[in-house]
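Troubleshooting: if your tokenizer reports a length mismatch, compare your output against this known-good record of 285 residues.
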Amino acid sequence: MISSEIKNFGILGYPVVHSLSPQMYKAAFEAAGFVNYNYIPLQVHTGKLFMAVEAIKGLDFRGVNVTIPHKTTIMNYLDAVDSDALVIGAVNTVVNDGGMLTGYNTDVAGFLAALAEANFLPEDCHAVVLGAGGAARAILWGLCKRRAEFITIGARNLQKAQALAKDFMNQGAVEAFDWLSDEFKEMLQTADILINTTPLGMFPNVDDMPPIDLKLLPEGAFVYDIIYNPAETKLLKTAKELGFPTLNGLSMLLLQGKEAYRLYTGQIPDMEVMERTLKETLSKK
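Known-good structure output:
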């Protein structure tokens, strides 16, 4: 059904030129018959975020996605924040309902949906998470929500990893280690799933990977890298050569986008169109 109603959406960040969101949402809107739904990259410098948020109201944007470096700061300027976003401490989607702005974090929904599609159930598992940045927070919360038995954080910056573990100590059993330590290597030996949340291996630095000996993982351990460009990072390639099941970050990207689209429109997007658009866009980069 074709709709002639005009609605505007966008993505706030700095920079935003790298974002795949405009292509993904435009394709989904067009497939749904929303011919006058616009999706605009909005480059917003640090220090001007408040003005940008006020402009969302003034220009009657229906919603915006939020990316680096504004995911945390924007929470100060919203009228309400969803419970997931509060726990994670970051917002990546804002919905405008008549001037009331509500922040959400769809990364956790995308992460859990991607795991479900891969037939991995995090309940009662031992999960090892690489990295202690913003992406790790959403992954940790997802694992806690699904009652992972134990979560091990491995990171280069032990102080940062320990602070992250402390933030989630009331949500589940979480412990942090230097990823080069003997203690962390011992933890790898009982992991059911290893999840990379660091940018190591992301394009253009495709020869990088976290300094982890994958041979320490038990047989059948699941290796998940939330990077989607390239489609197969050095970490995933190494894991596959060792016989481990693997998953990249494309499904998480798609499924968090699906949840944001639902929040914007109340509908489910055409996932085949979104996936095809993302793959075509990535193939050109």
